[in-house]
UniProtKB/TrEMBL annotation:
GO aspect biological process, one term: phosphorelay signal transduction system
Keyword Kinase assigned: no
Boundaries of every Response regulatory domain copy: 6-127
Classification via SMART domains: REC (SM00448)
Sites bearing 4-aspartylphosphate, chain numbering: 61
Organism, scientific name: Actinoplanes italicus
Keyword S-adenosyl-L-methionine attributed: no
Keywords noted in UniProt: Phosphoprotein
Database matches in InterPro entries: Bact_response_regulator, CheY-like_superfamily, Sig_transdc_resp-reg_receiver
UniProt protein name: Two-component system KDP operon response regulator KdpE
A Pfam family matched in the record: Response_reg
Length: 130
């Protein structure tokens, strides 16, 4: 049996973290359901988690207490090393917000509030699972 996928969830709102955990726990796709979810509530915590461990996917809130998540996306893109896919997850849903996320190095964009099925499908797509 292969190792479970590891997902870094960068999200400052506890309710949103609980929602993601609940959705993943009930996912019909085993690779999503069995994924190890690691939390980071701030940019600095996310940087530390990334320094300490490898991840297969990053779910990145853009509005964090210590800055904009796009800063982290830019840092990862500029690092010049392979990076996990980064999905911007935000309530900032204007077309220019999506463009800014993609320009910063995010691989995808998920609007809050999102349907559970959309979250699972987005994760599965980036983990290469169906």
């Amino acid at each position: 049996m292969s190792e479970p996928h590891r997902i870094l969830l960068v999200e400052d709102e506890e309710l949103n973290r609980m929602l993601v955990k609940a959705v993943l726990a009930r996912a019909a796709i085993a690779a999503v359901r069995d994924a190890e979810l690691v939390d980071a509530e701030t940019l600095s915590a996310a940087r530390q988690r990334l320094a300490d461990s490898d991840f297969d996917l990053i779910l990145l809130d853009l509005n964090l207490p210590d800055g904009n998540g796009l800063t982290l996306a830019r840092e990862l893109a500029a690092a010049g090393t392979p990076k996990p896919p980064v999905v911007a997850v935000t309530a900032s849903v204007l077309p220019q917000d999506q463009k800014a996320a993609l320009d910063a190095g995010c691989d995808d964009f998920l609007d809050k509030p999102y349907a559970a099925a959309d979250l699972v499908a987005t994760i599965a797509r980036h983990l290469g699972e169906r």
